[in-house]
Amino acid sequence: MSENYLLQMQGIDKIFPGVHALDHVDLNVRPGTVHSLMGENGAGKSTLMKVLIGMYQPDGGTITFDGRQVTIPDTATGLGMGISMIHQELSPVPEMSVAENIWLGREPRGAMGLISRARMKKSTQELFDRWEIRIDPTRPMKELSIAQTQMVEIAKAISFDSKLIIMDEPTSAITETEVAHLHRMIRQLKESGTAIIYITHKMDEVFKISDDITVFRDGKHVASLPAAELDRDKLIKLMVGRELTQMFPKLEAEIGEVILKVEGLNRGNLVKDVSFELRRGEILGFAGLMGAGRTEVLETLFGVFKAESGTITIDGKPVTINQPKDAIAAGMGLLTEDRKLTGIMGVLSVRDNMIMAALPKYSPNGFLNRKRIDADCQVQREALALKTPSLSQLIQNLSGGNQQKVLISRWLLTLPDILMIDEPTRGIDVGAKSEIHRLMSLLAQQGKAIIMVSSEMPEVLGMSDRIVVMHEGSVSGIIDRSEATQERIMQLATGPDAAAA
After folding, report:
1. DSSP assignment, residue 497?
2. Do 164 and 6 touch, CB atoms closer than 8 A?
3. Which residue, 262, 118, 202, is CA-closest to 496?
4. CA distance linking residue 252 with residue 81, whole number of Å
5. I need a labelling partner for 483 at 20 to 30 A (CA). Which of 88, 283, 351, 445 fits?
6. Cβ-based neighbours of 263, under 8 Å, separated by 6 or more
7. Is beta strand 283-288 parallel, antiparallel or unpaired with respect to 449-453?
8. Torsion on CA atoms 53, 57, 59, 61, rounded to nearest 10
9. Which of 264-273, 376-385, 397-406 has the highest mean pLDDT?
10. Mind giving me the DSSP string for 421-460?
11. What is the pLDDT of residues 65-100, one digit of tens each?
């Protein structure tokens, strides 16, 4: 093993049901450097880091840290070795103070073995003074902004005096001033010999702070190079360099008049001045990196969260959507991103899951018309080629692809004109993906207008008539199918600087 590396991960494998998340991945990190991990959504970056800190156990490969081969069975072991991580998903204890959150599980104690809150506050203040963080250690976490919470998480990771700190999207929720502050902190950590593994989708950050860059694609290691040998275009080509080999059954559909017009839609920092049009028969793809705001646009349009400003026009008439039932009444349907969490009701039958959104139609007098329900559900079963022993089968016993078909039929029974589908083929096999794509094309041919959010570049390019690309809550560009390439989408997705390129 080379003595030039603090960390060597070699041949790391991680397999989840149906997904080879990490395929013989290598990563070598030098002490006192910033090593950035780059790749599209689902490339394997965060999965590899969870293996490194002991959240996941690898299915193959070796980890060598600080000169010796190690096994990391849990996060406590990783911390004990000198590896800490700032997670993308913040998880503070809201009722506890800032100081209590930082020293949770390792509280300073007095002579009698009792927790010393005075020492805890003093240690926190010393930590904050050293790193120029202006937050009161005694404040409850629930009173802090997201940006302040992020800075506390950063300080907590630093407080372990780790040899290696993993930062997963550390600037996703902080201001430009705080980003500059974090970058100063990183430079100080480097000077003290600490290594940083940095994950971000912000291309400008990568070239400001990185010494080395590793690119992952589809769970595989693509390249590791000094940052000085790369530029934006070269890096993007490494990130998206696969060929589009998968065929998509995209059928030609007549694109009609504008059915949906969105102007100046705003919801905090998640949705910022979003405007676009959707036509009948069109599949409008939404592309962007994690946290770009694609899902948030759909949730705001559907009334899951209320817009702060902006107008929504359907068939030339302004509509007000304060809650999902308003959207359904306006002819909209939404398949959510997480099929299991916010889609299916696993303990209910296929039939019950199908009719859930259209119950008022089947009970005009307060009593369910079961004969009509069975007839309509059978039509959907045949039209979508749904594979199930019976409509009474529990939906949780179906495959992922067939569960997705049930959810599509749920919204078709409400007779929508506009169907919004968030990650239509996530977690389903290739054959089922093809069937879902065929179904979407058929619906477009019937005049349905479809908005499709997808993190899979081939799916976006293969199925979309036009593509709305988002970056940090804003639309950075809208591309016609004939002009869309992987590189162009990635340029727009990584920041407004590329929009003018």
Report:
1. G
2. yes
3. 202
4. 58
5. 445
6. 275, 310, 311, 313
7. parallel
8. 30
9. 264-273
10. EESTTTT--HHHHHHHHHHHHHHHHTT-EEEEE-S-HHHH
11. 999 999 999 999 999 999 999 876 667 888 999 999
